[in-house]
Amino acid sequence: MTVPTIPLHDGTSIPQLGFGVYQVPPPETAATVAQALEVGYRHIDTAQMYGNEAGVGEAIRQSGLDRDDLYVTTKLNNTFHLPDDARREIDASLDRLGLEQVDLFLIHWPLPTRYDGDFVQTWRALIEAQEAGKTRSIGVSNFQPAHLDRIVEETGVVPVVNQVEVHPFFANEDVRAANKKHGVLTEAWSPIAQGKVVDDDTIGEIASLVGRTPAQVTLRWHVQRGDIVFPKSMSAERMRQNFEIFDFELEPAHMSAIDELDNGESGRMGPNPDTFDWIP
């Protein structure tokens, strides 16, 4: 099965489906990613905060795959927003991954109540990293519309993606609209609502009608909306199921029924980026 690639505004492209390693224990990361690569995933999403970049790098080295066949994303930890810290830790990520360049580097959280609210300086550090060839593309994660507007207005450099919480119960439409305005693609984290889609009657009914699992239906909903998704699973069977979402389509009525599950802000499961200020 072939995963579609989506063009980014900087002239590169990104696989629409990836494999996320959030909460994969570091000692198990290499084996888990190796299994994902065997299934067919070629887009791996990690982060400094996850503590498992080294395991991702080990799996890549052991895979024997050409570097050009892989898409690797990592993210700057909240601890390193000051420019000198960011520069140092971007290099540290490359060392842990064993790569000369990643495909995409993100600011993990804007932290508007930390660092005097100056996440623009952090964005400038990523711009420098891209100019130095340490990353092909740069983007952000968990940026609200005002955060996105600010970095674009102050630097003139538009992120290629904004990775934010999106799932049927929290469609995050204001952020998706802001992304679209700037030509930024939306990456959906927690795309199956931490597994809660399994228990939803509407999604379950659609899954029965199309002969798929609730997770597959939900991931297909994302894909048809244009989201980039990277579900995480340590089960080989679920990895395969999550990968098999490009050989069927949801009808418009099914898409609309899932759209109607959106609960707005009350459906949010993770922290609110306007107030989240955790520094590990």
Task: Quickly describe the structure.
The chain is built from 10 helices and 10 strands.
What characteristic shape results from the CA principal axes?
Answer: globular
Helical percentage? 25-40%
Q: Decide which structural class fits the backbone.
A: alpha/beta
Give the SSE order as H and E letters: EEEHEHEHEHEHEHEHHEHH
Q: Would you tell me the overall average pLDDT?
A: 97
Ranges with pLDDT <50 over ≥5 residues?
Answer: none
The span between the termini is 39 Å
Provide an overview of this structure.
Belongs to the aldo/keto reductase family. Residues 261-280 are annotated as: Disordered. Keywords: NADP, Oxidoreductase. This protein is α/β, with parallel strands linked by helices. It is 40% helix and 15% strand. It is built from ten helices and ten strands. The strands form two sheets. An eight-stranded parallel beta sheet has the order 3-4-5-6-7-8-9-10. It has a two-stranded antiparallel sheet with strand order 1-2. The longest helix has 15 residues, at 83-97. The radius of gyration is 18 Å and the shape is globular. The model has no long low-confidence stretch (mean pLDDT 97).
